[in-house]
Amino acid sequence: MSLPLDIVIIWHMHQPYYKDPLKGEYALPWTYLHGIKDYFDMPAIVEDTPGARAVFNLVPSLIEQLLDYANGTAVDPFLLKGMADPADLDEEDRIFLLENFFSANRSRMIEPSQRYLELLYMAGEGKPASAKDRVRHFTDQDLRDLQVWFFLAWTGEAARRRYPAFGELLAKGDKFTTADKELLFATQREVLQATIPLYKRLHEEGRIELSVTPYYHPILPLLCDIRMAQTAMPRVTLPEARFRHPEDARAQIRRGIAYFKEVFGFTPQGMWPSEGSVSNETLGIITDCGIKWVATDEEILSKSLEGGLGEHHERLYRPWRFACPQGEVHTFFRDHQLSDLIGFTYSQWDAGRAANDLCGRLHSIRNRVGAEGRVVPIILDGENAWEYYPANAYDFLQQMYRGIANSHDLNLTTCSDVIRSSNFEGRLHHIFPGSWINGNYGIWIGHPEENLAWDLIAKARETAIISNPLVAAVLESGEVPVDPTTELICRSLYAAEGSDWFWWYGDDHFSPHSDRFDRLFRQHLMNVYRLLAQDPPRELLEPIKKKSPAGQVREPAAFIDPEIDGRISNYFEWLAAGLYDLTRQGSAMHSSDRMLQSFYYGFNKTMLFFRIDGIQELSRLLRDADVINLHLIYDREYRLPMQLRGDEGLLQVRENSVWVPTRGHCRWKISRICEISVPLESIRLAPKSKLFASITLVRDNEEIGRWPTDAPLMLYYAGPEIEVDNWLI
């Protein structure tokens, strides 16, 4: 009888440390919201599904926040304003509700409720500055319904099935009372109180394995030696200060393990290093701290092995051992494609079709590389993808687990079980230093904003060591001090080392809350100076995050080659593209003025690429007869008219006020998003030139939308030299 192929699914559960050290309150509510939706739902779905098994990697600073909410000790302005009687709210608080309580996926979380959608329309569909104008139209009953619907919409599907109160509120739908709201929050508190015990019980039953991450989710290799970034990124610009503190990496690991053991009662065997970031030195420290297995990305393995992953990726599907002076640690490498399919693609498919496709791909891997000694690791965030799925992915995840568990050729298992049964002797004596993104550290270092943040950490750390000998001794040893002030200083420094702050610095990611992340980072460091009884340096009083002009988020960083399928096929497709935030560009003339959200642009040697994102799926926003025009201006004015029912056409050029077809054959696809390819030769852009772009929407022969309203977007075309001039994030 042939052996089955081992399948390991690792869900990484993580949120930034949102608790403001100066105010003692939460700056953003995402730990609470994902707590009532995903952190409970994910283990509950495993429990609801016979044969399901998974690994859950829990970040200690997330556990700390979840317990804070579960114990009722968290001070969260979102929660307090949600619980407040609308009659007691002043105008500023009422505006706050309108500006923040529609922060939910529109198609999956708002539109299923007629009342919630009605409130969104009343609030102006989130149009900037509309809340101040519209708030006077909201009665106390409207605001109470909004309070209930925001938190009710964030409640997970598994939680709804287990707690009847949620079903009762969903069925009622509107005209909620104070008692209804009290029932909602009391039941959500029960969900939060049940979450950590659920993980613990499922681990004890062998249904799941629990693993850990360093306490505040830092990029370990950069803590050990910031110059490590140059190995993966030879052209990177490093911060001025030489940051080399492997003792901080060790302390973050030890503290994470100790807190995990305090909460769950056992020492974890495994670790997903923050952002999958690894290096020889960090794996040595991890091994020395007693961890038996780690996981990272397939690109790290590809760069670590001479000859890469092999013709059929056969080298990827092994539980490799990393050998170092401290011992050996098993190392799993995530299958990039399978992980991204779950994270970005399957949410648009029927649940059964998606689960069958995944299982089919797993069977195909088994047929190609065999099963003996093989393991396929699927690793991704355990909270962020599910709001794009119907029913918070309950049906998809159940069918995925069942499809794998019920197959005689597949074995759904855990990392520790694989290690116990594995006879594979393959060893790595060197690991390429990098992370799960592009196999390097570009998201977290190299941009002036990121480098300034590193320098500010280095300065605060040095000040603490010079000013307080006890802090110096504790930082050197990594031990937990008895003195509470010393502990708070060390915790503030460790919190500032977390990866999340750097994620939002630079040009590679955009968030409407980036200013709050910036403020939180600086306040952790200001807390160090406050506890040392010193004034913080002026640099900490000024924002690090710089505002881009007119909605510009970033320019292109490297060639891109996206698949023109109208979907986000994988995380990396548009990561190096330029980006404009259309919501900060002015918009259109009528009710469609909030229809479009983002505009991406990039190129390779032969094609220009564009991507248009709506505030929800474009295929739902547009009618069949609607025409979206992409306007481009270079030496002449060009236009590409696009419709839902088509996917290719000729670029047009304006001649004597008439649109004439060119020979430029373009492709597009409008589905969840709109993706477009335009041949470079049809415009003949010169390197280091400027191209101007705008978008119009025509309905019933009338232009009802234009982005931007005034001047077009300026797009910089670097040409082929972009691969030399820029170092990709």
UniProtKB/TrEMBL annotation:
Q: Quote the SUPFAM superfamilies the UniProt record gives.
A: Glycoside hydrolase/deacetylase
Give GO MF terms, alphabetically. Answer: hydrolase activity
Q: Which keywords fit this entry according to its UniProt record?
A: Carbohydrate metabolism, Hydrolase
Question: In which domain of life is the source organism classified?
Answer: Bacteria
Q: Where is the Glycoside hydrolase family 57 N-terminal domain?
A: 8-422
**What InterPro entries does the record tag this protein with?**
GH57_Enzymes, Glyco_hydro/deAcase_b/a-brl, Glyco_hydro_38_N_sf, Glyco_hydro_57_N
Q: Give the signal peptide, or none.
A: none
Protein family = Belongs to the glycosyl hydrolase 57 family.
Task: Output this protein's name.
Answer: Glycoside hydrolase
- Which organism was this protein described from? Pelotalea chapellei
